[in-house]
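pinned: reference chain
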Amino acid sequence: MTGAFRGFGLSILTLTILGGCAATPASDTQQTQTTQASTQVALATPPKVEQPLTLKQIMANPDWMGILAKGEYWSDDSQSVYFARQAHQSPLLDYYQQPLASGEASKLALDALHQADQQYGVLDEARTRKAYIYQGNLFVKDLLSGKVSQLTRQNTKVDGVRFLANGDIAYWQGQQVFRIHGDSGLYEQIANIKMAKEPKGVEAPSSYIAKQQHRLIQYVALKQNQAKEKEQYQAELVKQDPTMTAKTWYLGEEESVSQMSLSPDGRYLLLSLVDKNYSWRAEHDIMPNYLGSQGYVDAVPARARVAEDKYPGERLVLLDLERHEKRDITIEGLTGFDEDVLASVKAENAKAQGESYKSEKAPRRVQLMQDWAWTQSAMQWQAKDNKVAIMLEAVDNKDRWIATLNLKSGSLNTEHRLHDDAWVNYNFNQFGWLPQSDTLYYLSEETGYSHLYLKASGAKPQPLTQGKYVVSDITLGPKAEYIYYKANKDHPGIDNVYRVKLADGQSEQLTQWDGQLDYSLSPDGSKLLLKASRRTQPSELYVQAIGGELKQLTHYTSDAFKQYAWQAPEVVKVPSTHGAGDVYARVYLPQGYDKARADKYPAVIFNHGAGYLQNAHYGFSGYFREFMFHNLLTQQGYVVMDMDYRGSKGYGRDWRTAIYRNMGHPEVEDLKDGVSWMVANTHVDAKRVGTYGGSYGGFLTFMALFTEPELFQAGAALRPVSDWAHYNAPYTSNILNTPDVDAIAYERSSPIEHAQGLQKPLLVMSGVLDDNVFFQDSVRLVQRLIELEKPMFETAIYPVEPHGFRQPSSWLDEYRRIFKLFEQELK
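pinned: its structure tokens
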């Protein structure tokens, strides 16, 4: 360790371990409404704690909080729920079925798992059969009788399945597509794709020597004629004999199949192809594992960096399986397909280099939409007709298109274009067809918030939701009367489920929750399965009949956790002095809080990770260790705040894109306002405030200490990004474009470029096996600080840890150091 930190004893570690506390938890069913003001605001008094927390307890294996349900989904008959639990220290999941009638969950035996209703199965048109994949094999369930039939038993896994319009089943394995005929039981291979050059047939002699050989040597000519005759015979046999397997498709050796989708009648196969030479990594992209199982250093492959990741995009090909015709799909039908959308950025960067830039139109690289949350395909066929809608995005991140495909010409027609000068969101992209119509439904952020739209072919889009709230997780009801959705209409940090009637566009609220939730609609459309939480209550499963009462289904939170008097953070609005409106934040007050006491309080601001993530909400935080750590800090006399700084999720497009080409600067402005708010409202000493966070939160800690050195007296950066040019392309290129195009944005936004500003104590902690934010990020920054002759930093490394730590001992060591830093520098 290096640096000039003062030593002290960790008295908190000697406190008793949490267990059997009989204190009553604070009520969290009523929301605290805070009035916006620049002066004092009223905050609730924290609950009295009779048994203090310890770091060892809160950083222990989280099993002690309860072994909670996850991966929940409905049974096919809507009468029970399936979910998984992971027993204490087990690497395996156990699966359960819980009938709604009895309320008693039973563990499924291994030999019964294949019969469990499968979450991602597909239904036939009549909704009487369900096909699904289990352990790589194909099964079909008769929903009327409950009978399950296994259709394949192979080592080669099935990759996808669908019912065809006539009830036949089609499935694909690798680059082969099969059809099971329902009337005869025949298994037919309808497509065999080879990414190779088509073999040359029998070739006539072309050179002088070859022609001479055939002219002079009768045997050679005879063999040539016989081979040609066999070739012609075989071609005619395949063409006329209905028992023959379809011809193989040879699509060249320069590409590979990325995705495929089969039309409802099984005639058309839509393929997305990508350059075969593209790789997610380069040869030098390795991550050393210094604790390899054989005692050596293992070289673990790692992803490419955005500075080197040159994704070529994808191209679409349509195969007519009936006529054996291939159509290359052109992108000219995409509105703006050749626009120079980065012209101003390129001109600015060229000017900085003393050069000029001339804008010219050119076809852009595109790919199938890569939504980070959905489970659907970006290629959606109408259920019965050969109509397909495709969602594509530009590799430059500025456009998203929903286009329909002309199957005869191979041309695209733009149905909807979503353009964003910053970047198109990688969430909120669900779409599909209304049954037996030419109308599409989809989500779009075009008004500044994600909302639900309908669009008939050739008509203008029709909004089904409107307002300053976010719509997500849409579900088309089983009878297509309603579309169900989740939205934060009442408060950015409160979720509820709604449905809109397609006949008249009227929405109704179905749940009255006061925290965060996820939902799934029962197959019969009569009930909702909710996974819901509140600020001090981890997620449990609930069921609510449409129009009925809410019923809690699981009670897996441990008594030890429930009985503790956790402080529910207040969700407040911090007024921005930088033109951002209000910044939502969670605030925790010290035990025995007294705003009139002589000594002011020290404070800590936590910076959440991911950047685009919401944490200042009324649900149980995904940062549950940090939630408990913040409770511990309040017991030691700290005020704690965690902010949904600009760039966070849940507040619309403008909040999301406020950091475009300028990461780390708007967010630090928000942190400054957070400190000012605490000083004005919670009796905090502005000269005794620290900050910490992991991943994006670690990056933000760097930027705060480097660019505003008087704002915080100390900071801890966990698994932090120090140079965005070294992070991955899918995330970073959205916000900063690419380094070759926009060096200005990378230099402006990367902490290593601002390291000379460090003046206050900094703790840097990284996992050596982090394949998300590389350990190299911290290594490079440390060397930069050494060369800058900065004495006020320390480092800690964790040899066996990936990005999200796994070992309780690592969590404990990490937070001991964070706590020590704050006790040392802020008290």
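why pinned: Residues 559 and 811 are 23 Å apart (CA to CA). The first helix runs from residue 55 to 58.
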